[in-house]
Amino acid sequence: METAYKALRVRMCGNEAAVNPQDGPRGMGELASYDGVSFVNRRRVLLAVGGMVLTSAPALRSRLAPSAGQAPAGRAVRAARSVPLGVHPHHRPSYPLDRPLYYIRDDANAIALTIDDGPDPAYTPRVLALLERYQVTATFSMIGQHVAAYPRLARAVAEAGHKIANHTWNHADLAGMRAREVHDELARASDAIGAAAGVRPRLFRAPYGVWSPAVMSLCERMRMIPVDWSVDPRDWARPGVRSIVRNIMDNTRPGSIILEHDGGGDRSQTVAALRIVLPRLLDEGYRFRTP
User: Fold this and answer.
1) DSSP 8-state class, residue 121
2) Pick from 18, 98, 102, 182: most CB atoms within 10 A?
3) Which listed residue (116, 120, 235, 262) is catalytic?
4) Is residue 22 one of the residues assigned to a domain?
């Protein structure tokens, strides 16, 4: 799966605007809560947006990308995480308009750690041990097939107090898939998580960060909040422990959602990097929360 993961990442990056995903004022970002807003009301907003709603990940990120501040040629970076169109950065709405969550909203020092593509028998226990050591709560985005293969690991994550997000049944690229196929991917994963961990996921993360109208609509119907990320240290590419640590420390700000992985391949660099960044982030005064 790791080879396919890299291939799609490279293809996506080639179609995206090369901008810094962490641009924007420190501490400002999209909001992170559905508090007080019904899913019916959210549907009305999505319908009102009309043609502005997501059509594909590359198309969306092309719209969101600013005209200036591009990275040097040949440097592929995910598109910017900006505040919703038409929303002043100092006035964040109480729920996303036409996109998933890229930031959490809590207090000035809150950040979120997300761990994707598990559970994995080699690395999930090591990540859990680090989180317990530093008393950090995280969100694990789990693939249904892996949950079905390692149900005890999924239950261990839930029993340790962490959240579990739906990450599809087999890490599928949802772009262009029919609505029924998307439904099967999400429903099978939720069923597997519910059976193994005893909890139904209330969060959903699209593989590769690819979102579509069908995915957003289905999240609404299944009562799952779509969650993306704002800090991607590219640990999936195994760039080296120093690179992962530097990326996280340089780009994390209040409200950031950090992306890391415990599945999909050799995640020894991720584990080593977490051993360094978790105490550093805590020393800087950050507090870990879940979306």
Assistant:
1) T
2) 102
3) 116
4) no
pLDDT, tens digit, 9 for 90 and up, residues 207-253: 999 998 889 999 999 999 999 999 999 999 999 999 999 999 999 99
Could you tell me the end-to-end alpha-carbon distance of the chain, in angstroms, rounded to an integer?
27
Give me the catalytic one of 228, 232, 261, 262.
261
Give φ, ψ of 257 to 5 degrees: -110, 115
Q: What is the pTM of this model?
A: 0.71
116 is catalytic: yes
Cis peptide before 89 (omega within 30 of 0): no
CATH number of domain containing 47: 3.20.20.370
Q: Chain-centre distance of CA 39, in angstroms? A: 20
Is 171 annotated in the active site?
Answer: no
Query: What is the domain count for the chain?
Result: 1
d(CA 72, CA 202): 39
- Report the distance separating Cα 202 and Cα 53, nearest Å: 22
CB 227 within 8 A of CB 165: yes
Structural domain of 211: 2-17+39-66+94-288
Q: Give the whole-angstrom CA distance, residue 147 versus residue 248.
A: 28
